[in-house]
Specification:
It is a single chain. The chain has 9 helices and 9 strands. With about 290 residues, the chain is α/β, with parallel strands linked by helices. Helix 2 links the parallel strand 2 and strand 3. Helix 8 runs antiparallel to helix 9. The chain is globular and about 55 Å long. The structure holds adenosine monophosphate (AMP).
């Protein structure tokens, strides 16, 4: 495995790999966990070369968000990537990605407006801009993203389609802890009580799925169940709890199998996200001792 830090070298090595065979890219912000590593393994299974980028992208953090305190664990990350089978680890710095003359922003006013877009103004402009840059720098033919950030997968797919980028966007399943909590680098911020409360996201999704399996098709009814369960767990209203169409994130009045449940909420200063595809199993999970 090679660790690359210079843009010239990164472009040279990645493009060489892209010419010789299939090159897969896994973009991350580091502080890696099994969720990230599952993307690396998925890439390993179908690509000749697997490149992983680590860049804490300032553009996708809003003012007052956790950019400064976002966990940075470069040495551990590099070791984990070696064990997961990455070929290239690409470490990027702010000045390389956004030099003084940098002037372009990629934006999707519609798909990026709701849900996370309301909670994190400008977030998806930051995501789209960095993903477009990473695609440009690395030149992958496949790029791997987690369903954990469902809205992100929709905007990134649209980016590749709209700008005719020759990249296949592959979405990998959510990796969860044994108790069901979706893995996230931000889980490290939670104390024991908050972590317990955080399980409310997955129990809310399970409750809505059970209702759907019982025949309920009203999105309003499913959303009311999500909202109720989340209020109980979080001690406050969730940021959002919605049934959406997976293709365009619109809100159907009637839910069908394949629609997505998207939930997000706050525990102290930490935001947690989760989601679930209606009509598919979720759990059972181990209960805490
Ligand atoms: P991040 O480092 O948070 O930007 O995440 C990098 C990639 O890992 C994104 O595509 C995420 O959706 C994905 N990811 C994060 N957590 C998980 C998880 N629990 N399961 C699967 N993928 C994940």
């Amino acid at each position: 495995m090679r660790v690359l830090r210079s843009l010239i070298e990164i472009k040279e090595v990645a493009r060489g790999a892209g010419r010789r065979g299939t090159l897969g890219l896994v973009p991350t912000m580091g502080a890696l966990h099994e969720g990230h590593l599952s993307l690396v393994r998925a890439a390993r299974a179908c690509c000749d070369t697997v490149a992983v980028t680590i860049f804490v992208n300032p553009l996708q953090f809003g003012p007052g968000e956790d950019f400064e305190r976002y966990p940075r664990r470069e040495e551990d990350d590099v070791a984990l990537l070696a064990s997961a089978g990455a070929d290239l680890v690409i470490l990027l710095q702010r000045e390389q990605m956004y030099p003084e003359r940098f002037a372009t922003t990629v934006s999707q006013p519609e798909l990026g407006a709701d849900y996370e877009g309301v909670q994190r103004l400008g977030h998806f402009d930051g995501v789209l801009t960095v993903v477009a840059k990473l695609f440009g720098i690395v030149g992958p033919c496949k790029a791997f993203f987690g369903q954990k950030d469902f809205q992100q997968t929709v905007v990134v797919r649209q980016l590749a389609e709209d700008l005719d980028m020759p990249v296949e966007v592959i979405v990998c399943p959510i990796v969860r802890d044994a108790d069901g909590l979706a893995l996230s680098s931000r889980n490290a911020y939670l104390d024991a009580e908050q972590r317990r409360r955080g399980l409310g996201l997955v129990t809310a999704l399970q409750a809505a799925e059970a209702l759907f399996e019982g025949g309920e098709r009203s999105s309003a009814a499913l959303e009311a169940t999500l909202d109720e369960e989340l209020r109980r767990a979080l001690g406050q209203a969730p940021d959002y709890a919605v049934v959406v169409d997976p293709s365009d994130l619109s809100r159907p009045a009637e839910a069908r199998a394949g629609c997505m449940l998207l939930v997000a909420g706050r525990l102290g200063s930490t935001r947690l996200l989760d989601n679930h595809r209606l009509g598919s199993p979720l759990g059972p999970f181990a209960t805490g001792a």
